């Protein structure tokens, strides 16, 4: 297992009376693409700014490569940040923008020229040295901002919602570019976003945050398929989240109907939350379903149809490739493996994960 390159230990941070991070603990391994994901105000950007040296914590320590960097100035840290606003200098050429940090470090001109060519080739902008910043598209400007960070050879690249200003097609293209860069450069990426698709597409590890707490840490597959609580399930993709009762091992009662599941260890007759993804809801003949209901809404989404089905007083969200007209009477069936059982949280900001190194 790769060693922890970055370690946040018991970090707390407030702005005035607003507590943004509370006893926050997180480690990031070397060469990992870690995404901090959550809604506005959850603490993800503050975490990045603390790591970048733009803020200092009220409490706790930050370690980088086993060195305490909690109060180390930003310019002395072996990392670079790319912000949503790229902060490129409009009066400089692309080459001058890329070379800015190297000139401050008093690197030889021959070295700087080699680095500029290398960085431009890496971001697929060969020959753009003498272009003006204003002549570039948003996606090209974003690549130049990344090139400027890369030439400084950081061990870690911090990215604070860098794709937020781009249109959908360019954003998707840049997601794959960032994955490629991470593989080619072999450096650690710490990425901040509120976009679930970005996180699922690019990350090795996703850290889901809410109200200054870590709700869950895991691979994209784990976060999507095995959410720890209702917040994670609802934030990562669309879900049917239903109050239920865990009757006994491998039996759960959903909307008054007992169904088989694969979960164990929740006790007997225990109130739980059940998560069922819309693509895991099967529409069958009414005689074959656990429940019966009526299709109340139908939207064509291109790859699939999105339906609302009212059954046993609950409006189910269903994704299916079959056209089922509004008004159809259908059965609802879910395979046991696709029924995710979760404990009900003690509070809305309950910390839902313990981090084990």
In words, what does this structure look like?
By secondary structure, the protein is α+β, with helices and mostly antiparallel strands. The chain has two domains: 4-225, 3-Layer(aba) Sandwich (Rossmann fold); 239-343, OB fold (Dihydrolipoamide Acetyltransferase, E2P). Helix content is 24%, strand content 35%. Strands 6-7-8-3-9-10 form a six-stranded mixed β-sheet, sandwiched between helices. A five-stranded antiparallel β-sheet has the order 13-12-11-14-20. A five-stranded antiparallel β-sheet has the order 15-19-16-17-18, with no helix packed on it. Strand 1 and strand 2 (18-29) form a beta hairpin. Helix 2 (94-104) packs parallel to helix 4 (138-150) and helix 3 (109-122) packs across helix 4 (138-150). It is elongated.
Please give the structural blueprint.
Layout: E1 4-15, E2 18-29, E3 33-37, H1 44-52, E4 59-64, E5 67-68, E6 79-83, H2 94-104, H3 109-122, H4 138-150, E7 156-160, H5 168-185, E8 188-193, H6 196-202, E9 205-210, E10 213-218, H7 220-225, H8 230-235, E11 240-248, E12 251-254, E13 257-260, E14 270-276, E15 282-284, E16 291-300, E17 305-311, E18 314-320, E19 329-333, E20 340-343
Parallel strand pairs: 3-8, 3-9, 6-7, 7-8
Antiparallel strand pairs: 1-2, 1-4, 4-5, 9-10, 11-12, 11-14, 12-13, 14-20, 15-19, 16-17, 16-19, 17-18
Helix pairs in contact: 2-3, 2-4, 3-4
């Amino acid at each position: 297992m790769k060693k922890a390159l970055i370690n946040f230990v018991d970090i707390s941070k407030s702005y005035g009376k607003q507590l943004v991070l509370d006893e926050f603990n997180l480690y990031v391994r070397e060469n990992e693409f870690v995404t901090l994901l959550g809604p506005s105000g959850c603490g993800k950007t503050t975490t990045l700014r603390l790591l970048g040296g733009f803020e200092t914590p009220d409490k706790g320590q930050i370690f980088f490569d086993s060195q305490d960097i909690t109060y180390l100035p930003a310019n002395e840290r072996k990392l670079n940040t790319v912000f949503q606003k790229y902060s490129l200098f409009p009066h400089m050429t692309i080459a001058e923008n890329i070379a800015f940090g190297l000139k401050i470090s008093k690197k030889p001109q021959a070295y700087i020229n080699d680095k500029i060519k290398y960085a431009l080739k890496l971001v697929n902008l060969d020959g753009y040295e003498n272009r003006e910043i204003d002549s570039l598209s948003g996606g090209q400007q974003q690549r130049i901002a990344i090139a400027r960070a890369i030439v400084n050879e950081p061990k870690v690249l911090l990215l604070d919602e860098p794709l937020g200003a781009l249109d959908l097609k360019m954003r998707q293209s840049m997601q794959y570019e960032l994955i490629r860069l991470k593989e080619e450069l072999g450096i650690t990426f710490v990425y901040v976003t509120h976009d679930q698709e970005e996180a699922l597409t690019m990350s090795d590890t996703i850290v889901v945050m809410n109200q200054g707490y870590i709700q869950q840490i895991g691979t994209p597959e784990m976060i999507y398929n095995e959410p720890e609580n209702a917040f994670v399930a609802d934030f990562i993709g669309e879900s049917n989240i239903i109050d239920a009762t865990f009757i006994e091992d491998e039996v759960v009662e959903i909307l008054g109907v007992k169904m088989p599941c694969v979960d164990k260890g929740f006790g007997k007759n225990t109130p739980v939350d059940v998560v069922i993804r819309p693509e895991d809801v099967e529409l069958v003949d009414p005689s074959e379903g656990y429940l019966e209901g009526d299709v109340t809404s139908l939207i064509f989404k291109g790859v699939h149809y999105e339906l609302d089905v009212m059954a046993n007083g609950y409006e189910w969200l269903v994704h299916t490739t079959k056209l089922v007209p509004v008004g159809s009477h259908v059965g609802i069936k879910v395979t046991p493996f696709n029924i995710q059982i979760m404990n009900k949280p003690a509070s809305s900001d309950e910390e839902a994960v313990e981090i084990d190194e």
